[in-house]
Amino acid sequence: MKKLITILMIVLILPVAFAQESETTPGVTPDWGFIYSLDKFFDEAKVKSAESNFEKAQLRIQIAEERAMEMEAMHKKGKSTEANLAQLEYQKNIEDVDLITDEMEDDDEKNKIQDKLQNHIMVLERVREMAPVQAQEGLNNAIQNSNKVMEVNNIKVSYNNRRSLTQIKNSGTIIIPEDAVVTEESDIEQYRGGN
Questions:
Q1: How much of the chain exceeds pLDDT 70, in percent?
Q2: Is the pTM of this model over 0.70?
Q3: CA 147, CA 40: separation in Å to the nearest integer?
Q4: Which residue in 72, 43, 55 sits closest to 142, CA to CA?
Q5: How far is it, in rounded angstroms, from Cα 103 to Cα 56?
């Protein structure tokens, strides 16, 4: 009975303890076996309990950063199998960010996710500089994948902005000169009422 209580306490306390760690530490790493599986389980539970796609995307980026740190830590320990596992988990989270942002309708939220992805890429680049040579290829792939997600999302946001502007222009209530540079809906305010 004491063993069961001890195990339950570990399972309940570890996620809290590691959540309080600095963003630049990997926390529980793949070489921890079962505890690493629990860490991933709790990460998934956090994402599933998020109330909005915006929150889910933010959590996925945070988890991806953690996986990148795990990848670096495993390479430093010479554990390439575990590093590859962390890289697969990293990739899964970045792909999920892409899928989640597809479902988001608010361009401001998409832009905030873009900013977070940009910061995430900067973290990856910093990690890559400190990483051993054998880890750099995986980090290069991670950076490329993150850049692809950013590019796709930039295109989607740009398309949505242009579509919104076209709808506003075609509504007949706003006259915008042909030579006007309008990239955001807020730029249109100066032309409201046909001025």
A1: 65
A2: no
A3: 24
A4: 72
A5: 11
